[in-house]
């Protein structure tokens, strides 16, 4: 690294003086005149060289432009891979062929998953093989194939539903109305989800009834209405839906009816509902509907955490930390 100091440099060796015949009678200043004349000559040669080089560059660029135009004329702009794959998939109805093509390489796999490259109909004959899944189990697998297309909801609804029917779905059955409602739900199409949950609920589907209660409670796809939510939760409770018990408790808690909420959470927790166990932890932590009791709060949060509830895990860490700090502080005062 340069430290800013000046360094002594060795002087370069002296060069031999050029051998020039000096004619004292030469005009133009003798030796100086000869050197200036030579300089002008060399300068002229350099300029001529530059002009020739520029001319060559221009000619080369013109030639390349002409070649490029010829190539474009012979090979029009066309992404052979993706565009060709898209065209092919738009005409292939047989699902086994589509799947086989999708396994060729990444370009074909990508094209195979776009709904815009679906034909009007699909042929599911032999997919999956009868010896792998029985007919009752095949339609969900086939429907998963249909709903797995990117942008499938951008298709006209009639086309989308028709593809599901071709896959074997019977959209008049409540179980499949539930599946379609859940599909719309996951994609934040709340109003469509409610439409299909309602169809299933009209046929007495318990999960559809519970999901309607959740949507009324959260205001998804419908105006928020906790009384309506309670109505639908109670319908599901009457058919033994465990999570609906916790839903009823949450409605009471929202109405500040904490004692009633606590009792409903206990019923749901007794049947293993993790949300209810978390809610019991909340009740004990804040003393809502029951006497405040941090050890019991930790106990219920821990039960929920063991069932994979991340918020409950955080609550356990938080309360244990607070309790530890409190114990240490008390010990320091003794």
UniProtKB/TrEMBL annotation:
Leader sequence segment: none
Keyword Cell inner membrane included in the entry's annotation: no
Keywords for this protein: Coiled coil
UniProt keyword Coiled coil present: yes
Coiled coil start-end: 32-70
Ranges where the record places region Disordered: 1-27
InterPro entries found in the cross-reference section: ISR_Activator, Sel1-like, TPR-like_helical_dom_sf
SMART domains: SEL1 (SM00671)
Highest taxon listed in the record's lineage: Eukaryota
Official protein name in the record: Predicted protein
Organism: Micromonas pusilla (strain CCMP1545) (Picoplanktonic green alga)
């Amino acid at each position: 690294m340069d430290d800013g100091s000046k360094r002594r440099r060795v002087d370069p060796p002296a060069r031999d003086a050029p051998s020039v015949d000096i004619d004292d009678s030469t005009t133009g200043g003798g030796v100086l005149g000869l050197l200036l004349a030579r300089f002008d000559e060399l300068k002229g040669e350099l300029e001529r060289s530059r002009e020739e080089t520029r001319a060559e560059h221009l000619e080369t660029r013109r030639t390349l432009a002409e070649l490029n135009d010829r190539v474009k004329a012979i090979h029009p702009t066309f992404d052979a891979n993706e565009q060709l794959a898209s065209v092919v998939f738009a005409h292939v109805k047989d699902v086994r062929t589509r799947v086989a093509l999708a396994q060729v390489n990444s370009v074909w796999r990508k094209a195979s998953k776009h709904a815009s490259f679906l034909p009007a109909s699909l042929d599911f004959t032999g997919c999956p093989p009868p010896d792998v899944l029985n007919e009752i189990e095949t339609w969900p697998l086939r429907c998963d194939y249909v709903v797995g297309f990117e942008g499938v909801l951008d298709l006209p609804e009639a086309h989308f539903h028709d593809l599901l029917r071709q896959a074997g779905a019977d959209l008049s059955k409540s179980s499949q109305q539930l599946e379609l409602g859940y599909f719309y739900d996951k994609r934040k199409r709340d109003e469509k989800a409610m439409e299909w949950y309602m169809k299933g609920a009209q046929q007495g589907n318990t999960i559809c009834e519970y999901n309607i209660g959740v949507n009324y409670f959260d205001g998804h796809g419908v105006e928020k209405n906790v009384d309506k939510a309670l109505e639908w939760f109670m319908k599901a409770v009457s058919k033994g839906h465990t999570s609906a018990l916790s839903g009823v408790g949450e409605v009471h808690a929202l109405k500040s009816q904490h004692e009633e909420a606590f009792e409903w959470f206990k019923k749901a927790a007794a049947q293993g509902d993790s949300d209810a166990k978390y809610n019991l932890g909340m009740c004990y932590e804040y003393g809502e509907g029951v006497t405040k009791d941090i050890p019991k709060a930790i106990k219920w949060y821990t039960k929920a955490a063991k069932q994979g509830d991340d918020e409950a895990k955080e609550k356990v860490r938080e309360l244990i930390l607070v309790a530890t700090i409190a114990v240490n502080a008390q010990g320091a005062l003794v």
